[in-house]
Amino acid sequence: xxxxxxxxxxxxxxxxxxxxxxxxxxxxxxxxxxxxxxxxxxxxxxxxxxxxxxxxxxxxxxxxxxxxxxxxxxxxxxxxxxxxxxxxxxxxxxxxxxxxxxxxxxxxxxxxxxxxxxxxxxxxxxxxxxxxxxxxxxxxxxxxxxxxxxxxxxxxxxxxxxxxxxxxxxxxxxxxxxxxxxxxxxxx
Length: 188
Known about the structure:
Layout: H1 2-22, E1 23-35, E2 41-42, E3 45-66, E4 69-86, E5 93-109, E6 114-130, E7 140-151, E8 156-168, E9 176-187
Antiparallel strand pairs: 1-3, 1-9, 2-3, 3-4, 4-5, 5-6, 6-7, 7-8, 8-9
Signal peptide: 1-20
Domain Outer membrane protein beta-barrel: 20-169
Protein name: Outer membrane protein with beta-barrel domain
């Protein structure tokens, strides 16, 4: 009976160790450099646009599938948008869109600490804060992401990523979200 309990305890401890190495959870946050490239007219009115600086924050998980390959799903609160200046206006107008973003990144480790990352991202509009009265923002945004990740320690990491929107951000304008993200995070 003692041998059976000893073997069961050993198997349980080994299983917990293997799972801890294969699945990690963490948090991340960082800065967004967002813009909305596309057609420079809205309802026949010409305007210039500039990017905005905003933020993102959320939770991440890393599932190690092979020695040098992992999948990293994330759940992020991310703000994006642009600043608009209409030809006849004296001031700028900011259009800021808040999304719940769900990127799923494939990570290929080039070295023990440096990874190449790429994958799709689905985003759902949570709120729209603007001075322009663009009340027609699409509630769903689909993008492709690519970037690099660097593990500073086993727990601390940094990432740089570019997100290219593939769907229009507005139903009345031919504009898409484009974001450069710089992040820092901690894995538990």
